Structures are given as structure tokens and as C-alpha cells.
Task: inverse folding
């Protein structure tokens, strides 16, 4: 999103516009006063707004008041609550993890505790979407919870004082190889660059960096501009925006970045969009690093979010953006055909031939003059196809039914203490723990209890993937989300491994060894 002051268009006051506004007002009054039954006008008005926006581009949208609370929290990077990650298993709220330094951890709430009461509300039978309403609240307010803990005969009672809880946008930062850092950014919120700089410093400013923007759907444009500027010299163009009511503006690096010379690989995929494409597009256009993975989503439209007074908001597309070489990243769409737009993206998932160099506009990078393409996302310098070697319908069914998460909650309930004792650090766990046959048999048995028929051939195909996912989830519950990525990346045969190889074999002049110039 971009905050720009829009000038009042002279056309907004012409007679045709006034007539259309009057028409809407008349229909509202007639329904409110004359309709045969009493009418709740709020959903009708909201439906009318949604209907108008549905006739436009696929990214203009209405956001209801309740949804806006979650949206603002995700951008703000914090909310007020008790500091637990939770799931609902068999109608009971289960603590998956406590957030370090949060209220829950400080009073002794532990992972795998079953929350059976929140104040006077039973924790049994709550829908997952309802739980935050009871656990979150004004900072400084108190909430009483009652939990059942494995090994305790009686429920445990806790009184917690709600406090600010961070929502991190940087999931992981570690060193996968000597001199090479890895940072995973899940979205662009108000705290992203603060988190990113802290992560970079923790890694002691590595000589080379893998920046993982896979699955990053975007967020705040100013944070994307700042991230691109982290790698570029002062004055470098990063992105330009222009629309009917927005004069063309070019955003540039305001100062020389903290990482001007380090080797850089950016990982993207078909779910990398918007702000992620601004970063990867600027890096690619300036020949600053190597883009590895699969063609990004292709969202090159800029929205302005406008509050509507009752807590709801509307996001209206006000401009298009282009990369430093002039590329328009937005992929083709037709107004009013929102479903077709998203279905087309799903159809092209993993197909790197969907953007032919014969049919897309050709541009050239700023230094080397390499060819890059516009008209539909950022095309990587090095393309890595989707790894499907371990996929089977059996594996897909287990994922869709939430079997991995549910199994791990039960497993950790029984084995957390012994695992924490045996493996005090994530490194010791990665090197020393292996998923054994008894655990896999228990996992398969739970699947059969949930109606997932065991298919031996498909299990054999997916055995490696199943083991990797179980170990990664176990590590996440023991050491945090960063540990999950350390394990997933360790066995990655795709973009992560290719990016790591590029950084390890970077030539002495600092030029990336590109495969497909």
C-alpha cells in the first residue's frame, strides 16, 4: 500500500457523478422506509460496495470492520494479548508454543497445555476464529485461564496481564554455510526493516546473503523500498508509480545501503507478490544479485487504503508501478473478471513457459544489459522447477486433513521433556535426531483413524517428505519457527540449494554465474 495525497478531481463534481450518487442515496432511503419487512441496511450497503469493486481490477477490495482489526495487527507488527500460539484439536484449545518473554511464559503456561476455560467461557467447543476474541484485549487488562496439563490430576489456574505481543515478519535468520547468511521474510509490515536489520547484525553482516521472499505476498511499499535500498547505492531508482490521479513519482535509495558489495541471491516463487516484486525487480534491474526460483505472481498495482468511519476500509487501486528498467510487473487482467484472474494464476502454477520471451516486452538491466521481461511478474535469472519427487495423493490427503499438526501436538505432549533434555540446541537436534519407524507407524495409524487409507507405494514415494515435515514441525515446537526453516532448507533440492551453490561458486569478479542470460 502507498500513502499518497490525491488531488480532488474536477470531474468528481460534474453532474453525472452527482446524479449517480443521488441514485444510490434514493435507493437506500426507499428500501429503509418502504420495504415490506424491516431491513438491516448494513449488509446491503456492504454488498453494494463489494459489487462495485468487483467490476474493477482484481486487487481493489472492501475490508469489513472485524477483518480490519487483523489486517492492522499484521501491518503494525504487534497486538495485545497473552502471548501464545494455539490450535484447536478435538474441540479443545491447545497451546502450541508460548512467545518468549510474553505474559503466558512468565506465569508458567507451557506448550501442549489444554485451555479449558477463559474467564467464564468454556475453552471446549470454541471455533479457532473465536479464540482471539477472548485471549486478546486491552494492554494491562487481566484474563483468567484454566488449563489441563499432561501429568497433572487437577486443572491449573493462571491470571495473566495482557501485554504487547510482537508479530514477526522475519521468520528465520541463520548461517547455512560459512560466510553465507539466510534471512526469511514472510511479509512487509511496519516493523520489517527493523527486524531485518537486527537479523543481519545478528549474522554479523555476512559476506553473502540468501534473501528468501518465497510465499511473501507483499505489504507496505515503503518497507519494500527501504529493503531494496539496503543493497543499492544512494540515488538508485527503486520503483516508479503512476496513475490517472497520481503524477508519476520515482522512489530512490535515500542513502547508500548497508550491503552494497556482498554477494546476494533472492529466492522467489509464484506466491511472491507486490512488495516482494518491487525488491526483486530492483535487485535484478541493477544487476545487484541473482534472482532464483520461479516467476512471481505479477501484482503491479498500487492500492490506497481509505478508512470508512466504522472500522471498515476500502482499498482502491490508484496507480501502476514499474521497475527501474521500466518494466510493468502487473500480469494481464480484465475488469470484473476476478475469478478468472486468480484461476489463471493457479493454472500456470509451476509452469515457467507460461511467459514466453516471444510475447512479453523485453527490457535490459542497468549495468550489464541482460534481457529481462515485463508483463507478468519477475522472471528469475535462474529458474528452478517445482520439486514434485516426493509428492503423492496420499501425502496431499494428510496435509489437507491437518494430520501433521494434530499428530505433532499429541507427540510433543508426551515427549517434549525428553527431547529438550536430549537435544538442548537446534544444532544438536538437526544433527542427532532422526524420525524412526515407530513414529512413522504411529503417524500412519492416526491417519487411518481419520479416514486416510494407507497406500504403501505412495507412502514409500513420500516417506522422505513425511519424515522431513515431522522433524521440522518438531523443531519448530522445541526451538521456534526459525528451526523449522533450518530443517526444511537442509533437505531442499530446489531453489534454496541452487541459491546456495551460486553464492558458494561466485566468481572472483563478483559477477553471478547465470545459467539463462
Result:
Amino acid at each position: 500500500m502507498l500513502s499518497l495525497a490525491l488531488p480532488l478531481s474536477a470531474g468528481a463534481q460534474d453532474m453525472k457523478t452527482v446524479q449517480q450518487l443521488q441514485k444510490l442515496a434514493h435507493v437506500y432511503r426507499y428500501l429503509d422506509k418502504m420495504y415490506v419487512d424491516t431491513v438491516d441496511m448494513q449488509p446491503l450497503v456492504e454488498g453494494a460496495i463489494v459489487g462495485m469493486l468487483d467490476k474493477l481490477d482484481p486487487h481493489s477490495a472492501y475490508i469489513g470492520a472485524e477483518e480490519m482489526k487483523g489486517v492492522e495487527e499484521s501491518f503494525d507488527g504487534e497486538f495485545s494479548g497473552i502471548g501464545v500460539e494455539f490450535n484447536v484439536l478435538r474441540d479443545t484449545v491447545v497451546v502450541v508454543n508460548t512467545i518468549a518473554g510474553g505474559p503466558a511464559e512468565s506465569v508458567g503456561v507451557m506448550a501442549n497445555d489444554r485451555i479449558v476455560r477463559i474467564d467464564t467461557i468454556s475453552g471446549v467447543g470454541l471455533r479457532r476464529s473465536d479464540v482471539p476474541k477472548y485471549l486478546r484485549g486491552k494492554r494491562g487488562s487481566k484474563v483468567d485461564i484454566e488449563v489441563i496439563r499432561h501429568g497433572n490430576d487437577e486443572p491449573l489456574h493462571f491470571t495473566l496481564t495482557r501485554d504487547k505481543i510482537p508479530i514477526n515478519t522475519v521468520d528465520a535468520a541463520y548461517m547455512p554455510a560459512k560466510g553465507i547468511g539466510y534471512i526469511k521474510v514472510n511479509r512487509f509490515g511496519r516493523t520489517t526493516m527493523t527486524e531485518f536489520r537486527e537479523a543481519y547484525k545478528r549474522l554479523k553482516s555476512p559476506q553473502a546473503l540468501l534473501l528468501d521472499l518465497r510465499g511473501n505476498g507483499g505489504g507496505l511499499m515503503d518497507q519494500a523500498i527501504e529493503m531494496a535500498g539496503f543493497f543499492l547505492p544512494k540515488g538508485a531508482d527503486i520503483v516508479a508509480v503512476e496513475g490517472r490521479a497520481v503524477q508519476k513519482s520515482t522512489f530512490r535509495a535515500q542513502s547508500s545501503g548497508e550491503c552494497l558489495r556482498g554477494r546476494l541471491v533472492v529466492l522467489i516463487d509464484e506466491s511472491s507478490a507486490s512488495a516482494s516484486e518491487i525488491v526483486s525487480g530492483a535487485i535484478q534491474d541493477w544487476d545487484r544479485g541473482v534472482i532464483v526460483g520461479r516467476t512471481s505472481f505479477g501484482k503491479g498495482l498500487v492500492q490506497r487504503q481509505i478508512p470508512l468511519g466504522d472500522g471498515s476500509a476500502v482499498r482502491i487501486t490508484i496507480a501502476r508501478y514499474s521497475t527501474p528498467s521500466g518494466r510493468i510487473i502487473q500480469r494481464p487482467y480484465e475488469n470484473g473478471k476476478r475469478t478468472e484472474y486468480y484461476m489463471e494464476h493457479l493454472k500456470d502454477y509451476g509452469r515457467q513457459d507460461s511467459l514466453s520471451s516471444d510475447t512479453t516486452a523485453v527490457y535490459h538491466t542497468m549495468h550489464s544489459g541482460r534481457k529481462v521481461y515485463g508483463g507478468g511478474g519477475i522472471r528469475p535469472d535462474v529458474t528452478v522447477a517445482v520439486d514434485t519427487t516426493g509428492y503423492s495423493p496420499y501425502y496431499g490427503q494428510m496435509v489437507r486433513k491437518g494430520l501433521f499438526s494434530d499428530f505433532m501436538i499429541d507427540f510433543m505432549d508426551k515427549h517434549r521433556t525428553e527431547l529438550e533434555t536430549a537435544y538442548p540446541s537446534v544444532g544438536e537436534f538437526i544433527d542427532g535426531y532422526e524420525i524412526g519407524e515407530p513414529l512413522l507407524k504411529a503417524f500412519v495409524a492416526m491417519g487411518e483413524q481419520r479416514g486416510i487409507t494407507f497406500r504403501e507405494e505412495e507412502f514409500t514415494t513420500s516417506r522422505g517428505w513425511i519424515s522431513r515435515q515431522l522433524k521440522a514441525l518438531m523443531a519448530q515446537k522445541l526451538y521456534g519457527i526459525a528451526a523449522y526453516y533450518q530443517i526444511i532448507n537442509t533437505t531442499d533440492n530446489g531453489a534454496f540449494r541452487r541459491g546456495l551453490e551460486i553464492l558458494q561458486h561466485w566468481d572472483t569478479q563478483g559477477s553471478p554465474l547465470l545459467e539463462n542470460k
Observations:
- Residues 75 and 189 are 4 Å apart (CA to CA).
- The first strand starts at residue 61 and ends at 63.
- The chain is about 35% helix and 20% strand.
- The chain has a mean pLDDT of 88.
